[in-house]
Amino acid sequence: MNETKLRKLTATDNTELARMANNKLIWNNLRDRFPHPYSLEDADFFINLVKDEDPCYNFAIEYNGKLAGVITLMPQEDVYRRNAEIGYWIGQEFWGKQIITQAITLITDYGFKSLQLKRIFTGIFEYNPASMRALEKNGYEKEGIARQSIYKNGQYWNEHKYAKLNPDL
Q1: How far apart are CA 60 and CA 67, in angstroms?
Q2: What does the pLDDT read at residue 2?
Q3: According to DSSP H, which parts of 24-169 are helical?
Q4: Could you write out the three-class secondary structure of 89-122?
Q5: 3-state class of 146 per DSSP?
Q6: Which residues pair with 141 in a beta bridge?
Q7: At the N or C end, where does the chain have fewer CB atoms within 10 A?
Q8: Distances from the Cα of 137 to the Cαs of 78, 152, 163, in angstroms?
Q9: Is 141:153 a contact under the CB 8 Å cutoff?
Q10: Which pLDDT tens digit goes with each residue over 10-19?
Q11: Rounded CA gap, 45 and 1, in Å?
């Protein structure tokens, strides 16, 4: 049986994290602050940055015992403090296996039940329909499209805005 789970990142994830993240196809769907090329030093920096989080907001996505990617909740501040932005990526060899759909389920449940978030949201680049489908399978609803709000790889792109509300709050 194929199993997806979330866990804390560890120092021993650094080599595999760097290998998978150093892929322009992954970087194309992420914000430019995500390094490219992605080095072992970048992996070490990120792991050290998040290793002592309490509560944890950054998780390794593990699939059948192997590191498959990273998923994050970015808590908001002030009047938005019961909101978090979700972000994620998985290694190319794990694409098309429903892993990210399962990881979104797990982190959404965690955000709603453990962190008592009211709303989890994200923006998806228009050319990433697989990510939109994964969110929709988890009950995220499209709230709108921010026209040409993304500037990536020298071009303007639309951003599709998605959110899910905690039904228990």
Answers
A1: 7
A2: 77
A3: 24-27, 40-50, 99-113, 129-137
A4: EECHHHCCCCHHHHHHHHHHHHHHHCCCCCEEEE
A5: strand
A6: 163
A7: N
A8: 30, 27, 12
A9: no
A10: 999 999 999 9
A11: 34
